[in-house]
């Protein structure tokens, strides 16, 4: 396989007494989407800032397309785009004004900067708002402008730091469509997100990070397979939660988590469980179930398991 | 090959851009950022007016309300005495203007975008201070208009008048670097906005509105050495406006032109390197 286009090895970074990163490794093959998942404070943004040359690691090193992010920062900067949770555009300017200015700062000629601005506005559906001040844009439009600003120079690697945080579902969908289109053209995308469905839909590979380290990697399916199938039980009487939890614990060896007021959910180790057997056990304990279902785990459950922040039935 | 492709190639094949390239980029990127300020001004011309509301209120408040009770040392019209002080006040507003703009860029991620781009590192602070110089000139022109309206005028001819304005421009440029540094240091536009009123006492604690002679000793010392005072005193002298001190005064007011130049040089020597270092620092 070809060398990964994004490579980080043993990145360490601390701020004062807190260790944001403690030995982070990451490897992204060209033309893929890597989803970096982690709870708040796991080190996602710190990792992106180092990869995008905004911050220097205390130890370890990182390369983009073979160029070191510290020693060859100019080379890296010519190959990356960065868009994030803050729409980093000048709110006082128009959408077109922003793209033209940043185009000039990428050292395009005036004519080319104008042409590229129009091309991007047209392609990403912002032409109607092109001559309006960004202050008047909706959250989704701002984010899209931020995204296309980072595309001016056709970056090889695009860093998206929580690109849809705080957006409504439709705007999220629009950002996702844009990202898919870019990837189809060969751009490599490194995406941090708190939304697991976002990673599920967009990412080829996922790296789950917690406390500044990668705790698991794999495709969404591989990660889901690591924790086996899930059993969801909905009870007729919420008062039966505690005894039902005890039955499920006896069967599976793990504490079920609560889902809503009257439901329980538990991961099944291995595949040897039969729905009929489980129903029989609940029946024997005198628990009336409204619904019992087996299903694949969601990425959320994988994530909670891996980052160990699940909510147990007390 | 399209131009876009050429630029992409140029950026990514030059291992280290030559010194000449870097210099040219610093210059052209700086010009682009000055153009940015002009673009903002075109979108919101009201900003300039907002910035002038305060000095305009001062013209009325001091020129017509308090002024009637303030005696000009050595005699003369109070509004003639006042205008050089207001020019100095507008000059000093560079600190606040540049500080809030820099802090806004830093807190809203625009600064990070600049840093993640293959653009000239020094262009950002130079562009910002250069742009402020342009808006500063515009504001000064409006203030001169207001001054002429209320009866102020320069009396000593073209050269001294030009020298007075030149001093304002030099000090403004130096002060704008203080704004860059403070803006980068606070990194938060809300904090920066909250700091703006703190600068007011700075301009009032001077000879701009009243002579310093009547102040208590320690306060008078601060006022005498305030660059606002030196700029005001040199303008009064060069415009031939009343209030030029006679007799025993503190060194800065006896040599106001030299003081303004010394202050400007000192501010530049301290704050240009500090700002550039703060801008380049990576690590957050």
Give a topology summary:
The complex is a heterodimer of chains A (314) and B (284).
Chain A: E1 6-15, E2 18-28, E3 33-37, H1 44-51, E4 59-64, E5 67-68, H2 73-77, E6 80-84, H3 95-105, H4 110-123, H5 139-149, E7 157-161, H6 169-184, E8 188-193, H7 196-202, E9 205-210, E10 213-218, H8 220-225, E11 230-235, H9 241-252, E12 257-259, E13 263-267, H10 275-284, E14 289-295, H11 299-307
Parallel strand pairs in A: 3-8, 3-9, 6-7, 7-8
Antiparallel strand pairs in A: 1-2, 1-4, 4-5, 9-10, 11-13, 11-14, 12-13
Helix pairs in contact in A: 3-4, 5-6
Chain B: H1 3-13, H2 19-43, H3 46-65, H4 78-107, H5 110-115, H6 123-149, H7 158-186, H8 189-195, H9 199-204, H10 217-225, H11 227-239, H12 251-254, H13 256-280
Helix pairs in contact in B: 2-6, 3-4, 3-6, 4-6, 4-7, 4-8, 4-11, 6-7, 7-11, 7-13, 11-13
Short characterization:
The complex is a heterodimer of chains A (314) and B (284). Chain A has 11 helices and 14 strands. Chain A is of the alpha/beta class and 314 residues long.
State the total count of DSSP E strands of chain A.
14
Number of helical segments of chain A?
11
What overall geometry of chain B do the principal axes of the alpha carbons give?
elongated
Beta content of chain B comes to under 5%
What strand line-up does the widest sheet of chain A have? 6-7-8-3-9-10
The CATH architecture classification of the largest domain in chain A is 3-Layer(aba) Sandwich
Poorly predicted runs of chain B are none
Fraction in helix of chain A: 25-40%
Task: Outline the biggest β-sheet of chain A.
Answer: 6 strands, mixed
Report the span from N to C terminus of chain A.
49 Å
